[in-house]
């Protein structure tokens, strides 16, 4: 452990970090697990003044030859002469750990997610802790593009579009081919391309739409609008199973389940979504994500530095200057937000 005093480590728990959330684990349980790990690791360090005094006393104690000490102790027993010793100052035992209990508990760490993924979805999840909470607003309003691998299975349908729902229908699927599935993916992507320009208030075949697209990704006006798909591609096809790679903004897991169901119906069959996995959240990828076994104090502090590189204004503001994006897209809600962003990335 690089720290010798728990308070020094605790003061550094301010920033943004990224983990890989396993499936079947809700965000609330993920946060509880991280809080428990941080409390455990901090409590393993000296936490109280008593422990510091004890360490200082042990370090200042002169080292002697163990054999000489043994001889001296035996000689005292033989002579039975009284020996006067000066005891060092004994620290106040009311500050002992066994009296006060653990210095840190889980609720001492305030952790917030941005773009939380539901229980049955796995993948990249970004969190903020301490002062990093204020920075999550910038990430959320940036409307980062997210990348998913969505798995489906042809031949059956459930009442809630998930594999754990009640089966309501079984159908044949051997007539489905990969070219047919690719065509459905292209249609879904094309329909959403039309919606992008519709929401932007321009015609998709106009010069204005071309100039708008040249500026970069055409994003929704805000995070409350309907899901937008920027890419839908079949990357694995092995009947009855298939996998789609989907690039989206404002997406939800229920929307992906509904999309798989609709693709099955359009191919004269049925389909159910079997798995959803997020590979990327904007600039945060699987390379940034900590596995569950690495949700520890030292790894999270190291992850702060890795994620800090992705918080530069040029990345967060998609290459535009702060004032321009703040005026047009309301990314920066106030002058205070702008000052905070500048000071944060310059740390």
Automatic annotation (TrEMBL):
<dbReference type="GO" id="GO:0003723">
    <property type="term" value="F:RNA binding"/>
</dbReference>
<protein>
    <recommendedName>
        <fullName>Pseudouridine synthase II N-terminal domain-containing protein</fullName>
    </recommendedName>
</protein>
<dbReference type="InterPro" id="IPR039048">
    <property type="entry name" value="Trub2"/>
</dbReference>
<dbReference type="InterPro" id="IPR020103">
    <property type="entry name" value="PsdUridine_synth_cat_dom_sf"/>
</dbReference>
<dbReference type="InterPro" id="IPR002501">
    <property type="entry name" value="PsdUridine_synth_N"/>
</dbReference>
<dbReference type="Pfam" id="PF01509">
    <property type="entry name" value="TruB_N"/>
</dbReference>
<comment type="similarity">
    <text>Belongs to the pseudouridine synthase TruB family.</text>
</comment>
<feature type="domain" description="Pseudouridine synthase II N-terminal">
    <location>
        <begin position="121"/>
        <end position="250"/>
    </location>
</feature>
<dbReference type="GO" id="GO:0001522">
    <property type="term" value="P:pseudouridine synthesis"/>
</dbReference>
<dbReference type="GO" id="GO:0009982">
    <property type="term" value="F:pseudouridine synthase activity"/>
</dbReference>
<dbReference type="GO" id="GO:0006396">
    <property type="term" value="P:RNA processing"/>
</dbReference>
